[in-house]
Amino acid sequence: MVWDPQQYLKFSGHRLRPAVDLLMRIPDVGPRTVADLGAGAGNVTKLIKERWPSAAVTGVEGSAEMVAAGRKAAPDVEWSHEDLGHWRPAKQYDVVYSNAALHWLPNHAALFPSVMEKVAPGGMLAVQMPRNFLAPSHVLIGETALNGPWRSKVEHLVTPPPVEGPAFYHDLLAPLAQNIDIWETEYLQVLEGENPVKEWTKGTWLTRYLDVLQGDEKAAFEDAYGMRVAKAYPKNAAGQTLFPFRRLFIVAQRKG
User: Fold this and answer.
1) What DSSP line would sit under 14-43, residue for residue?
2) For every one of its 256 residues, what pLDDT tens digit does the chain have, with 9 covering 90 and above?
3) Which residue of 105, 112, 185, 201 lies most exposed, with the fewest beta carbons within 10 A?
4) Any idea which GO molecular function terms this record carries (predicted)?
């Protein structure tokens, strides 16, 4: 995927809120080292550094465009441009934080224990992932993909939801953790503008499909999805679009 930081940050306030909610739920273990996995444009990494100014914070990000934006937003953070799926640090971290990133990686049954092993004993793993994949915003992307002349090019992207339920992650992490806190929050996001849910997904999940297509076909796919999603999320009397969005949170302390 080619990430567009400007598109992603169109709804930076709404995207930032769960990241801050997660950050504030991490006990202050006095970390000396912190890794931010999927650090994106650095707006959250900057807050991590502000919370623990004496810690050495590393932002790990697979998109060159996002790393460039992150270095501007958080210049006092060490930036590592690498694919999260191949993250193999030579050391453990006191805090491993990841906001809206790990759902892009497959095989969570192996991934989460592997990431937990990168947390130092007594340290914290903190993860937030969207779990909105059965909502119209996301279901209609797959419906559009399977009902158009572009089907053969994009149908391989129509896959089951990438994030499991809370109990799945509890059972994975329990053998490695002394404390686990897992919860879900559904945010009722009040969006402004023309077809804002389309614009929201265009900054994340829809990008996977648009990257495969070119020219008129790409525009036609976006228009077809836009028509479907606008009907699913009509404006209210005040001209606003209400967009419920569920997210899964995990804060787990590694066994000492």
Assistant:
1) HHHHHHHHHHHTS-----SEEEEET-TTSH
2) 444 545 444 445 678 899 999 999 999 999 999 999 999 889 899 999 999 999 999 999 999 988 998 999 899 999 999 999 999 999 999 999 999 999 999 999 999 999 999 999 999 999 999 999 999 999 999 999 999 999 999 999 999 999 999 999 999 999 999 999 999 999 999 999 999 999 999 988 999 999 999 999 999 999 999 999 999 999 999 999 999 999 999 999 999 8
3) 185
4) trans-aconitate 2-methyltransferase activity
